[in-house]
Design brief:
The chain is α/β, with parallel strands linked by helices. The chain is 34% helix and 17% strand. Helix 3 runs parallel beside helix 4. The chain is globular.
Length: 210
């Protein structure tokens, strides 16, 4: 949703679903953890209220205090809430992931391109999804970093070895050229912003990635 027209964000959410999107990815940025400010729980709730009941809403919290704000995003009706492993040491990630699940949402853990994949391995049994960032988070429209595919391969191997049953998501610079590379490495779901919302034909763009 970061790449949509914010002037009509509810309509844009519906447009994406009608074009064939499986779910909606909501990038929440606080201007501190990343160098941008996007939107918060009230806008997430507005999106929730604009789309058909049962739509899967995937909130990616790029914020310093996900534990503090978590209740507000649960109240906003998010289906999945993903926090960042880089907050380890400042935030009790085990407790926050447990609280996400206790609140009725699925729990995800994200890592930035410069963060070693080993940082998420201790949490795999607690996760519904691992989000591998393929750009430095903060702004849309960046170029895909192919080297992070090695992290996806490591996670896929760990999953195959019984470390958990999590999905592997990739986010950043993904379009029809990058999608097969992500799939081959072991990714299950792809976040696509600029390549879909800013395409001449969103439905065709999504179909091309499929």
């Amino acid at each position: 949703m970061l790449a949509c027209d914010f002037r009509r964000i509810g309509e844009e959410a519906v447009r994406a679903l009608n074009a064939g999107a499986d779910w909606l990815h909501l990038d929440v940025m606080d201007g501190s953890f990343v160098d941008n400010i996007s939107f918060g729980p009230d806008i997430c709730r507005a999106i929730h209220d604009s789309v058909p009941e049962g739509t899967f809403l995937d909130a990616h919290l790029m914020i310093d205090a996900p534990d503090h704000y978590l209740p507000r995003f649960l109240k906003a009706g998010m289906s999945m809430i993903t926090i960042h492993v880089e907050r380890e040491g400042e935030v009790d990630l085990h407790a926050t992931l447990a609280a996400i699940r206790a609140g009725g949402a699925q729990a995800g853990l994200a890592l930035n391109p410069a963060t070693p994949v080993e940082t998420v391995l201790p949490y795999l049994a607690e996760l519904d999804m691992v989000l591998v960032m393929s750009v430095v988070p903060g702004f849309g429209g960046q170029s895909f970093m192919a080297h992070v595919l090695d992290k996806v391969r490591t996670l896929a191997q760990a999953r195959a070895a019984g470390a958990g049953s999590f999905l592997i998501q990739m986010d950043g610079g993904i379009g029809p050229v990058q999608a097969p590379l992500c799939k081959e490495a072991g990714a299950d779901c792809l976040v696509a912003g600029s390549s879909t919302f800013r395409a001449d034909d969103m439905a065709a763009a999504i179909a091309a990635m499929r």
